[in-house]
Specification:
36% helix, 255 residues, single chain, 12 strands
């Protein structure tokens, strides 16, 4: 069995880590390099950095922050936000990122996924899917949003996940906009639908508030990794606590 990963997420805005609710009302949570170093010491398997305003403001991602982080940590990390071209991806990878995450531009120009995968390998490409629940005739469906959750698309999240994997995504980072920052648990139904539809790893995001939420995302949602922000930034739980809880429930993790 492949060990499940625990991944802190650092949303970065203007060089500082922030956190909000459903992608809104952002408040400061610290310096990205300092937090990254802390999470390495605590036993994080990987880190994810997302420039939350890059796509909205139409600018490139945080290359300088990437360079600083790469000098301080020795675990894999993914960077996303503002990756609009192959050259943007190259700049992040060249300055120390191990993977790049694409969201808005992946939807607008899906061929970007294939371009990055062909150049650097699909293990370097993470497609982020931000989705919100909608109801139609009593059934739930999940609509994909871009531009940091501000613009709805016509895409169904499950169908888009399948297509992204076919184009070369090595992983999918699936965030429930409805659950983001609310600490009421991951959207297990969303995770389960996507994980059953693709053969690539799925990272659960959005909603962790209790130790059992991490277990549910893996056991019921089929996630290969669990990502969280608030509960780690504000020390509700440590990464060690999460891993020990998962182990107690029979989930293999790296200690």
């Amino acid at each position: 069995m492949v060990a499940k990963r625990v991944i802190p997420c650092l949303d970065v805005d203007k060089g500082r880590v922030v956190k909000g609710v459903s992608f809104r009302d952002l408040r400061g949570a610290g310096d990205p390099v300092e937090l990254a170093a802390r999470y390495v010491q605590e036993g994080a398997d990987e880190l994810v950095f997302l420039d939350v305003s890059a796509s909205v403001e139409g600018r490139r991602a945080i290359v300088e922050v990437v360079r600083r982080v790469a000098e301080e940590i020795d675990i894999p990390f993914t960077v996303g936000g503002g990756v609009r071209t192959l050259e943007d991806a190259e700049a992040l990878l060249r300055n120390g990122a191990d993977k790049v995450s694409v969201n808005t531009m992946a939807v607008e120009k899906p061929e970007l996924i294939s371009k990055i995968a062909r150049r650097y390998g699909d293990q370097c490409v993470v497609v982020a899917i931000d989705a919100a629940r909608e109801h139609s005739s009593g059934d739930s469906l999940f609509r994909v949003y871009t531009h940091s959750g501000t613009r709805p698309t016509k895409l169904d999240a499950v169908e888009w996940a399948r297509r992204a994997a076919e184009l070369g995504a090595g992983e999918l980072l699936v965030t429930s906009i409805d659950r983001d920052g609310r600490q009421q648990g991951y959207d297990v139904e969303l995770l389960s639908r996507i994980s059953k539809s693709v053969s690539v790893p799925v990272i659960a995001s959005g909603g962790a508030g209790a130790l059992e939420d991490f277990y549910a995302a893996i056991s019921a949602g089929g996630a290969d990794a669990v990502l969280a922000a608030s509960v780690f930034h504000y020390r509700t739980f440590s990464i060690k606590q999460v891993k020990e809880h998962l182990m107690s429930r029979g989930i293999e993790v790296r200690l």
